[in-house]
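Today's session is about reading a structure prediction critically. Students often jump straight to the picture, but the first step is always the sequence itself: look for stretches that repeat, for charged clusters, for runs of hydrophobic residues. Only then move on to the predicted structure, which in these notes is written as discrete structure tokens rather than atom positions. Here is the chain we will use throughout the hour.
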Amino acid sequence: MVSRKKLGSTEKALYETQSILAGPVIIKNGIREYPVFVESYRKGKELEKRALEYLKLQGKKSKVWFKILEGDEKLSLVTLEEILSSLTDKEKEYLYSSYELGYFEWPRVHSAVEISEYLGISRVTFHENLRRVEKKIMRYIHDAIKMEKKICR
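Below is the predicted structure for this chain, in token form.
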């Protein structure tokens, strides 16, 4: 944990406006870019104003501006626990068994028919459930990639 006294001018402004640093600081041609998420346009302008004030207090001649990259997208930080909690016990069992039995290998170690027999379900049920699991997991990955692309523009 960092105390408020140890924060730099940008970090103080982020803290005071309750903004979130959304990725690494990017330095292009000597200019630092801080990808941040703010609650609203008003908060973004407040962040811009405070950061400029702190820089002036430090005697630094810098420019600060607030640039809107996208509409009102929300920051979504996802943990493995959240992904797992979105899966039912049966979905976890199907995914675990499929992986352990080599369904995702190329060539496959066991076919869908063999894994469905192992699980005691029909092949169609196996495919439906596995696709549902894959879709849930891929949604998290898709959203993370989408967010990364917005930040890295």
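Discussion point for the tutorial: The first helix runs from residue 9 to 16.
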